[in-house]
Amino acid sequence: MSTTICAATCRDGTPCHGRARPGDDMCFVHSETTRERRAAGQAAGGRGRSMIARTARYLPPALTPLLGSLVEAMEQVHTGAITPAQGTAMASLASACVRVYEMAVVEQRLESLVRGRVIDARAVERSMDDDTETSGDTPLD
């Protein structure tokens, strides 16, 4: 398979070294067929890569309003609408909420692990009972 180089010229007057798209003599950056996709990507900019956007993606839905309130409080402290002490109090309360949520998640995971092991232990006991019934031996106490 041969690769075709883009037929366009860059802004600085040098030939583009990008790979032409299949069925086109231009690369993604220079092709008229990709103009709308490029514009949409440029409009989105780095919004999806910001720390707040990444954090919000991994944040449980129950804590999403909390994040919004904290960001708003930071802005209010910055503009002087609330005092730094009020902002600190909000951050402390939010931290307590997060700790409670984390503990609930840990408890839920622990419970599912224990439940899984109880099921496994019962399966082992049943298989041991089956083995003893077929072999005629009595289990050790």
Shape: flat
Task: Please report the total strand number as a whole number.
Answer: 0
The unreliable regions are none
The tally of helices reads 4
Report on the biggest sheet: none
Features of the shown structure:
single chain, 141 residues, mainly alpha, flat
Provide a descriptive summary of the structure in words.
This protein is mainly alpha-helical and 141 residues long. The protein folds into 2 domains: 1-45, no CATH class; 48-135. It is built from 4 helices and no strands. Helix 3 (64-79) runs antiparallel to helix 4. The protein is flat. The model has no long low-confidence stretch (mean pLDDT 80).
Task: Furnish the topology, listing elements before pairings.
Elements: H1 35-44, H2 51-58, H3 64-79, H4 84-135
Helix pairs in contact: 3-4
Report a brief summary of the structure.
By secondary structure, the protein is mainly α.
